[in-house]
Design brief:
The chain is an all-alpha fold. Helix 5 packs across helix 7. The longest helix has 38 residues. The N terminus is likely disordered. Bound molecules: zinc ion. Zinc ion binds next to helix 7.
Length: 151
């Protein structure tokens, strides 16, 4: 009877250890039927655990033979694209490690073409800026040189 007191109590559930994701959660994730927090939790888990991604692919494969990669799933569902602002901050390296990691994952692993195009666009805008400034500077020096020559 003494050992009965040693059984695990519900207090164990209060530990900050992440609970393993259930099949149900993964299915709901594919359906985008989870609350935002839970979606984010699944995304983090997917990033940290390639086996989980395989599981997700397997579920999706059972539903629809012909989809073979997580990237395809992502593209099909257009899941969790970061905003253009977030992509801009990503380029400037001012995001938290967590968010930056997700965007990196979204671009590299999910292979989101929409975000890649957006990022490309933002990059070319950013690299344009120094050229514009440089041009202005040249014009300024040219005009002041001309001004000096006229003197
Ligand atoms: Zn995207």
């Amino acid at each position: 009877m003494f050992f009965r007191n040693c059984k695990k109590t519900t207090d164990d559930n209060d530990l900050p250890m992440p609970q393993p994701l259930t099949q149900h959660e993964l299915e709901a994730y594919l359906d985008e039927a989870l609350p935002v927090d839970a979606m984010a939790r699944v995304e983090r888990a997917l990033r940290d655990d390639p086996k989980l991604a395989q599981q997700l692919i397997a579920i999706n494969g059972r539903r629809d033979a012909g989809v073979h990669s997580l990237g395809e799933i992502w593209r099909r569902h257009r899941l969790s694209c970061p905003s253009r602002d977030q992509l801009g901050s990503f380029l400037l390296n001012v995001l938290s490690e967590d968010v930056a990691g997700f965007i990196q994952f979204h671009l590299d692993v999910s292979g989101c073409r929409t975000c890649a195009a957006n990022l490309h666009d933002l990059k070319s805008q950013q690299s344009d800026e120094p050229a514009v400034v440089d041009n202005r500077r040249k014009k300024y020096f040219q005009s002041s040189a001309g001004h000096l020559r006229r003197r």
